[in-house]
Amino acid sequence: xxxxxxxxxxxxxxxxxxxxxxxxxxxxxxxxxxxxxxxxxxxxxxxxxxxxxxxxxxxxxxxxxxxxxxxxxxxxxxxxxxxxxxxxxxxxxxxxxxxxxxxxxxxxxxxxxxxxxxxxxxxxxxxxxxxxxxxxxxxxxxxxxxxxxxxxxxxxxxxxxxxxxxxxxxxxxxxxxxxxxxxxxxxxxxxxxxxxxxxxxxxxxxxxxxxxxxxxxxxxxxxxxxxxxxxxxxxxxxxxxxxxxxxxxxxxxxxxxxxxxxxxxxxxxxxxxxxxx
Length: 277
Fold this sequence. Notes:
By secondary structure, the chain is mainly beta. Helix content is 4%, strand content 49%. The protein has helices spanning 92-95, 231-237; strands spanning 2-13, 21-32, 57-61, 75-76, 82-90, 102-110, 115-125, 128-141, 144-155, 162-170, 183-184, 193-198, 204-209, 215-216, 218-223, 243-248, 260-266, 271-276. Strand 12 (193-198) and strand 13 form a beta hairpin. The longest helix has 7 residues, at 231-237. It is globular. Residues 1-19 form the signal peptide.
């Protein structure tokens, strides 16, 4: 096993009339599986392939391609066993291009089967995942991509932030079943991962950790009007970055899409010119 010691920020709501968020920095051991120490041949595993989506739909997350970690490279948090949740932070800048569009589903990638699970879309409240605005039950999470539709689509609102998470059982040993999480070196690896767990055997709380530049394999399915040549079409075209700033033809910073030529700057440092009609 390759042990990666990462810094985790633990978020706990203080018990008071006006609850405040307290943040503490702690260390958590996130372990990556070593293929030389596994007890079965992962090459025999048939991974669940991704489903095709409609032309008016896009995958949105820390990356948007179909990339998954090899089953031999699954990661886990054996130091925090329990019924845990893990997910991504859909910041305002990530969601801005899709305001008014609908989140109709979610998918998450696995390196091991996890059995029964659930998928959740939380609204960020006071800096942590709060109210669940969409959810669904997962009968059996299998190795590969697992896609679930939400019974009721959620409309993305201006200025809000969300967390897209899935639930799984984290085991406390170092067997194969303890390493189901898929992380890939693709997209913007600077945004932290949300993790819900019972840390140090006390209370469950939301935590954040940095996966060493890798990104968790979970994405939401956004449905809307994606005209060819629009700014949104260009944002999703690369599959590896998110929009961080936008300028008009004169080089002036603008707040959102404007008719005419837009210059879009992405989180990977690249820029792209797009025509908004």
